[in-house]
Amino acid sequence: MAYQRLYEDYRLKAKRANQRMVELEKRGYKSPAYEAVQARLEMLGRSKGKAAGRRFSETGRATWQYYEQVSKVLDEFLATKTSTIGGYNAFYDSVWRGADQDGKLSAAGVTKEDYLEFWRNMPNKEKDRLYGSAQNIRIVQMLEYKGKVGTNKNQYTPAQIATIIQGSNNLKDAYKQLGITYKDQKNLKDMGALY
Fold first, then answer.
1. E-assigned strands of 30-110?
2. Scanning 13, 27, 146, 187, which has its CA 20 to 30 A from the CA of 46?
3. Where are the domains of the chain?
4. Cα gap 58→18, rounded to integer Å
5. Are 70 and 15 in contact (CB under 8 A)?
């Protein structure tokens, strides 16, 4: 068995990282930093256990090789802005402001929460998305215009919209599944939303 020793800096960083993950989980935030560190922990062989997510060991004991490997992961996570609640909120506020330029999303009835939930359920890489940002936003705008976004019967949550879009064979199929007609498209265009 390889020799393990106590690394106090590793123990302290692990404790701080675990606390940040717990805070993000309590609020239901799956930030980019959180998702990335969970994937890295899985690659390091950490299992979920009883916690909501994977955690770093806080004993501080490790072999030199493992210490070096985990220290890099810890340093990257702790340095990432979205690993904190404040950084997460600031990041998504800037994303919303950029998307809602000139108030076009707000005018179409798309809320910040709906917009962010929708994008959390789309693939992270644009090449993995069926359609570009503008087309996806337009679909959400049409559904908002029709009163079809929400949690009531005959409404879609942003997560459901994202799933339907990604599961569609083409744009026409997505429109059909979501109940969007040519008239809906024309009405939205006449209102001057996004286009």
1. 61-62
2. 27
3. 5-85, 100-191
4. 9
5. no
